[in-house]
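Async update (no meeting this week)

Hi team, since we skipped the sync, here's where things stand on the single-chain job. The sequence we agreed to prioritize is pasted below, unchanged from the tracker. I ran it this morning and attached the output directly underneath so nobody has to dig for it. Comments welcome in thread, and please keep replies under the output.
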Amino acid sequence: MYKRILVALENGRADDTLVPHIAELALLLGSELLLVHVADGWVARNFDQLKLAESDEMRADRAYLESIADRLKASHLVVSTVLALGNPPTEILKVALARECDLIAMTSHGHKLLGDFFYGSTIDKVRHNTAIPILVLRSGTGTASPFPAT
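Output:
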């Protein structure tokens, strides 16, 4: 059903909800996981245009992705990673299309209208611009993780 699942990671506590859920789903379905984090700081957004050096934030994000991938690979999952740079919804959609993902998995923080106005809503922007199914988990509602906390 889902051969390749894009897992949009935030490099934060919300990932503790998403990763175990998606790992279990991937094991059941034999799916490949594509872990994606979008670095969106100033350096990341201007990296290519200004030919900047990789920032400490970008290096930390890359190391985070690799640590999650290593833990998932230890559970016999096929995992790859992408550190994208720029606007999160745009980059998630670009990677999902380029890598032919069948499902996009993300977490929601449960902001209401005013919160979405101030914080933005990556989920809304992604869901309005793709035909790929999206699985959204509310942050903090996952089951106990088979992986150590990040």
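Quick observations from my side:
The chain has one domain: 4-138.
Confidence is low (pLDDT under 50) at residues 114-119, 143-150.
Reply here if anything looks off.
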